[in-house]
Amino acid sequence: MEGVLDGVRVLDVSESASGAYCGRLLACYGAEVIKVEPPGTGDPARRAGPFPEDRPDPEASAAFLYLNAGKKGITLNLEAAGGQAVLRELAAAADVLLEDAGPGVMDGRGLGWEDLARVNPALIYVSLSPFGATGPYATYRATQLTLYALGGYMYLTGDPDREPLQGPGSQPAYLAGAHALTGVMLALLAREAGAGGQRVEVSELESVAAAHQWTITRYNYSGTVQRRIGNRYDFGHPITIYPCADGYVGIGISTDEQAERFFVLIGRPELLADPRFGTNLARLLHADEFDEIVLPWFRARGKEEITRLCQELRVPCSPVTEVDELLANEHLAARGFWQEVPHPAAGTLHYPGPPFRMSETPGRPGRAPLLGEHNEEVYGVWLGYDRQRLTLLRRAGVI
Amino acid sequence: MTGLPLEGVRVLDLTRVWAGPLATRILADFGAEVIKVESRSARGPASVPAEYARRSGFYPNGEAGERPWNRNGFHNKMNRNKRSVTIELNTEDGVALFRRLVAVSDVVIENYSPRVMANFGLDYPRLREVRPDIIMVSMPGYGMTGPYRDRVSYGTTLEPEAGLSSLMGYPDRGPQRLGVAYPDPVAGIHAAGAVLMALWHRRRTGRGQYVDLAQVETAVNVIGEYVVGYQLNGRRPARLGNRHPWMAPHGCYPCRGEDRWITIAVGDDAAWQGLCRVLGRPDLAADPRLATPQGRWEHQEEIDTAIRSWTQDQEMLDAMHRLQAAGVPAGAVLDARDLATNEHLEARGFFPRLTHPDAGTHPYPGQPIRLSATPAVFRTDAPRLGEHNEEVFKGLAGLSDQEYDRLVEQGVIGDRPPH
Q1: B184 is catalytic
Q2: Of residues B29, B106, B184, B381, which has the active-site annotation?
């Protein structure tokens, strides 16, 4: 068994990163994932970029290449009745369908959960959306920025005297996609135990709200409303990012023992006896004074040297890594993390490997499909369509 | 099928803090029997300074109470639906007891640093001797191999290392961390998926397997498009603050009240026209310079000023509802109180209320994975330390009363911290 999900068939009709990431993960572990795109324009991620030398090319958009690696690609016009009929046929042959069109949209096309459950009662129908299908915000519009805000991450991020900040990239979408993966696996296991198919619903808002450390429970337990405190951490100090000679380092001193070893490292062992710095809480309360004392040590050294010195004494520390440095990271390289995959339009690139490694079922790397690349294969193998039928559908603008 | 998808699956959970417990919380919500195996000192000391209890906000009403180890909200939030036993694994008796549990379990999950399980004599090859089809998941910061495998790490140091921090921040300042230890939930959600995949595999083949989840690699997976993008255009992504590479306006604007804000993101002409209507600015709507996304992006400072002069007198939720009614993607910046009392999350029943004998009754963040036929069930609040020692050790592990009493006496098991 090469991939743990070998033999599982997935229709990915998603249009945003949340559904696409779930599909990527399923493909990464062996599922046959069919990306269904509108004919002509293709998936919106094909227009997102970045592109080679910044020249837009729908076959070489980084967002599309990454999120759809390992999938097969077909085109199908879901706005047209003919396309909807074809999707119902495909759904009859699939185990899982991923969609993120928003509440009611698939129903309006006659492709909602209830519609498709009639043609395939064993189908696992996965709906991802910003707010879920019910509730007062269900039809509200959203972007990643507004979801960082409503999900409560933004209020906690940034300087106390400046505006709150959004997070890196599309985390609400990724959190929802990862939750959806778990939902698919639960539904597959339940189906095997006799539950039949079912609907899996994941919202980005709830995915962010469930990924809080202690924000909500602190409020419910003690009325505490946590605020943003720059790069500091509401638990101890220094758990922060410091500037150094050639960039920045992340440091995460979380116990008094680690602090003691750090004081020895910077040649100031007497600081542990200083009542301002002896405990996590004391250091946090005197964080400005603390930083003033230690910053010269950081500014005099580079991030790799600081990381090495700290780690030798088992003090949690890491370099702040830019994307190009990530690609050159010796640890990831030694673990064979990057997957070198050729692509006819984008060339050979290094893609992140799977998020976890399974000893018996490692899965396999793959590339993103060209628009409609697998039309003949998928329509032929899944539905038995011949060339003539495909030509007719193509002429009618269905594929 | 009688109910939950993971009924009959027994998980031994050695994980601590956030990433691992989040993974097993998902499993427990869907019916797995998750047995938390804790050291008696895992939940901190027997007494907590009053100042810490008050300031941390983790304890009901700021009071640590008689048994603070059972009253910590962070612990209680992460561990609902689970059982708790204590074992001191640095004792021979403790290791032997753990092996007895492995023999009757399906999954072992742990997030120690890589040497620890081997030092206990409990690494995967040895667990397989006890239970040949065991599934084991290890989820250390850097994984089980490679030059950094023994480095000390937390979510707070993995976030910068994995490249996330350099992608965000104020444009005039350095890299920024999110306000939570973000790699933790990323690893936890994926780890739950790993367990389920391994179970799927075992049901097909009868074979267990070993999963190596390096939290740093999982974190890279959620910014993958930037890594691919760099290889295409050779540029480090700029730190954009709250701006967007092509949407404009796209920002965070002050509202009435202290530290109240709203985010607005305009990605199409319809949203732009809606925004101008709500702002009462037909002049902007008609301005040919602002008629295209490109034009709006180039003049976004001017637009931001117009938005700000409107939002600063608005109540943030009211402004959000008005903007949404006009088709504008807008989201208020919610704090803890706003989230805990949010009408949408409330209407969807996102906050189950659970009752704990030492901590009282509280709502908790629920389960974002919603299954129509086999939904998550919130059966019990977090277990008290060692609450299930007797039933698990005597029932499941088959200890005699005599053996059990001896282990309690020797401190190998217990229900309160040693000091």
Answers
A1: yes
A2: B184
Give yes or no for residue B1 having a pLDDT over 60. Answer: no
Other beta carbons within 10 angstroms of residue A30's beta carbon come to: 23
Which ranges constitute the DSSP H helices of chain A?
17-28, 62-67, 81-92, 105-108, 113-119, 144-150, 171-190, 204-209, 215-222, 256-265, 280-285, 287-299, 303-312, 323-327, 330-334, 375-383, 387-395
Quick one: pLDDT at residue B52? 86
Q: Tens of pLDDT along B241-273? A: 999 999 999 999 999 999 999 999 999 999 999
Instruction: Compute the nearest-CA separation of A280 from chain B (Å).
Output: 10
Query: Which residue in the set B30, B190, B200 is minimally distant from A356, CB to CB?
Result: B190
DSSP B353: E
Between vectors from CA A365 to CA B111 and to CA A24, what angle results, nearest 5°?
70
A 304-363 residues inside an 8 A Cβ radius of B: 311, 314-327, 330-332, 334-335, 337, 346, 349-361
Dump pLDDT digits (tens) for A158-199: 999 999 999 999 999 999 999 999 999 999 999 999 999 999
Distance in angstroms (rounded) separating the CA atoms of residues B323 and B274: 7
What integer pLDDT is reported at residue B40 of this predicted model? 96
- How far is CA A34 from each of CA A95, A345, B305, rounded to the nearest angstrom? 12, 20, 45
pLDDT digits (tens, 9 = 90+) for B195-228: 999 999 999 999 999 999 999 999 999 999 999 9
Identify all chain B residues contacting A281, using CB atoms and an 8 Å cutoff: 51-52, 55
Task: Please list, in sequence order, all residues whose beta carbon lies within 8 angstroms of the beta carbon of residue B274, skipping any fewer than 6 positions away.
Answer: B323, B326, B327, B328
Contact A152 B336 (CB under 8 A): yes
Inter-residue contact A36 to A121 (CB < 8 Å): no
Are A4 and B18 inside 8 Å of each other by CB? no
Asked if A321 and B166 come within 8 Å (Cβ–Cβ), the reply is: yes
- Secondary structure (3-state) at A265: helix
User: Using the beta-carbon criterion (under 8 Å), do A202 and B369 form an inter-chain contact?
Assistant: yes
ipTM of the complex: 0.98
**Could A150 and B229 be called an inter-chain contact, meaning their C-beta atoms sit closer than 8 Å?**
no
Amino acid at B106: D
Q: pLDDT under 70 in chain A at which residues?
A: 1
DSSP A51-95: -GGG---TTS-HHHHHHTTT-EEEE--TTSHHHHHHHHHHHHT-S
Contact pairs from chain A to chain B, CB under 8 Å: 516
Q: Label residue B2 by pLDDT band (50, 70, 90).
A: low
The pTM of the whole model exceeds 0.80: yes
Sheet of B135-138: strand order equals A357-358, B210-212, B135-138, B107-110, B10-13, B33-38, B83-86
Cα distance from A85 to chain B (closest Cα, Å)? Answer: 25
Amino acid present at B229: G
* Res. B240 pLDDT band, cuts 50 70 90: very high
Cα distances (Å, whole numbers) of residue B30 to A25, B34, B185, B371: 21, 10, 18, 10
CB contact residues (below 8 A), chain A span 230-259, against chain B: 231, 233, 239-241, 243, 248-252, 254, 258
In this model, does residue B14 exceed pLDDT 80? yes
- Residue B231 CA to residue A352 CA, distance in Å, equals 12
The DSSP-derived string for B118-154 is HHHT-SHHHHHHH-TT-EEEE--SS-SSSTTTT----
What b/e string do you get for A91-124 counting C-beta neighbours within 10 Å, with b at 16 or more?
beebbbbbbbbbbebbeebebbbebbbeebeebb
Name the residue with tokens 């699956």: B9
Rg (CA), chain B: 26
Q: Name the pairing type of β-strands A9-12 and A96-99.
A: parallel
Is B344 close to A136, i.e. CB distance below 8 A? yes
Q: Check residue B287 and give its pLDDT.
A: 98
